[in-house]
Amino acid sequence: MDDPGRVHVDPAGNLHICQGLSMGNLSRDSLVDILERFQPTRDPVFGPLLMGGPAELVERHGLPHRAEYADACHLCYEARAALRERFPDVLCPGGMYGEER
Fold it and tell me: Which of 20, 43, 50, 86 is most buried, most CB within 10 Å of its CB?
């Protein structure tokens, strides 16, 4: 995640490392600018994910959680959905989190 091997762009211009986890928006900024500014270890979402995965994201933000999940991606999605309002520029677009368009 700190040096992604691949990214993808959604129709709104969001540059994703993973679905719903955006580095920036190409409709607002150039790819060069996004990549130069991207400091994942300092980011409140990317940082914990890099340090310890979804469990660290939950711990760092004190999120409620269940005892079991289908897999790490399931926990990650649930944690990110809970944080969506706090970090809408990183956790986007809203449609990825069940929000109406």
Answer: 20
